Backbone:
């Protein structure tokens, strides 16, 4: 029987993190999947992985456990713990501090499958990589912003200028410029994956400088947008519920295709180290633009028509959204 285990606070050696522990080892013969996160699952990036893992575990009747808020010093210990307990698939956000520890442990367990978020290459034979390729819906968001702006000034508040973040910023700006060559895009990197007060401060500064639509790559922007009466775009998940009168749409990253493919390939014996990039694209269902919800009437008909037209081209492969991984300079 499927087991999706709830969070429990426990210690692992000297570690200090939230660990969804349990008796997975008692499920003899059952497929076991684990996820390891450096932040809370409330953080959008890790939340996307977690939600997909929950869905696959429920659909495919498999065991799922996860550990959140895992510090850099403890990352290798947690990866090794799950590996020792015989988990078939271990996924997580190995970016930055978790990258080297995860890869080192994977070498010791060649029969275990690992799939981690990474901007680097695979590690044969068992360490696959993925990333949130949501630049396509970000481009569509840029089209909306470029056509709806009254000031010709847009804003993006993001975390850290690494390739995956730069792709979103670059695509958003490219989309805006494709419909409005006069638009200016202000960019602020807050230097953190989760610092809502700092993100809000950056958003306020942009609004004061004339920005009337904001791409919220990080939490904190919606509060500033709501206070100023401007619209914003969500990131990673459908964030309309966080600010219904503010969030026009969101760039959704759906990890479901990646997680499902990984589980199925392990079960049928075809798993190998590979870049799982293709399963994050719009054509594979790995990313999409969220519904407009109650704000649909606020978006002009010609804007919705243009977005639908370009989206159709993206899905058909007749238009390729540019991949811009260098930092976007603020206008």
Residues:
């Amino acid at each position: 029987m499927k087991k999706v285990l709830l969070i429990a606070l426990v210690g692992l050696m000297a570690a200090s993190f939230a660990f969804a522990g349990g008796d997975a080892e008692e499920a003899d013969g059952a497929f076991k999947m684990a996820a390891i996160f450096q932040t809370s699952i409330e953080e959008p990036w890790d939340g996307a992985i977690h939600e997909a893992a929950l869905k696959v575990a429920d659909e495919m009747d498999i065991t799922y456990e996860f550990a959140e808020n895992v510090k850099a010093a403890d990352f290798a210990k947690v990866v090794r713990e799950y590996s020792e307990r015989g988990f078939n698939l271990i996924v997580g956000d190995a970016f930055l501090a978790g990258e080297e520890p995860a890869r080192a442990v994977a070498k010791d367990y060649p029969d275990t499958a690992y799939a981690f978020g990474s901007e680097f290459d695979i590690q044969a034979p068992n360490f696959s990589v993925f990333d949130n390729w949501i630049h396509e819906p970000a481009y569509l968001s840029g089209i909306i912003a470029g056509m709806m702006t009254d000031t010709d000034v847009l804003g993006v508040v993001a975390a850290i200028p690494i390739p995956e973040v730069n792709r979103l910023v670059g695509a958003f700006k490219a989309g805006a410029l494709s419909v409005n060559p006069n638009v200016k895009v202000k960019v602020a990197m807050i230097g953190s994956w989760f610092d809502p007060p700092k993100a809000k401060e950056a958003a306020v500064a942009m609004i004061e400088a004339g920005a009337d639509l904001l791409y919220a790559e990080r939490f904190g922007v919606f509060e500033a947008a709501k206070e100023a009466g401007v619209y914003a775009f969500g990131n990673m998940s459908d964030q309309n519920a966080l600010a219904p009168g503010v969030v026009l749409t969101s760039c959704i990253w759906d990890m479901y295709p990646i997680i499902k493919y990984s589980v199925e390939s392990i079960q049928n014996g075809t798993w190998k180290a590979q870049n799982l990039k293709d399963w994050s694209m719009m054509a594979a269902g790995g990313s999409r633009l969220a519904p407009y919800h109650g704000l649909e009437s606020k978006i002009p008909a010609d804007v919705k028509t243009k977005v639908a037209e370009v989206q159709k081209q993206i899905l058909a492969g007749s238009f390729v959204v540019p991949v811009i991984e260098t930092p976007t300079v603020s206008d």
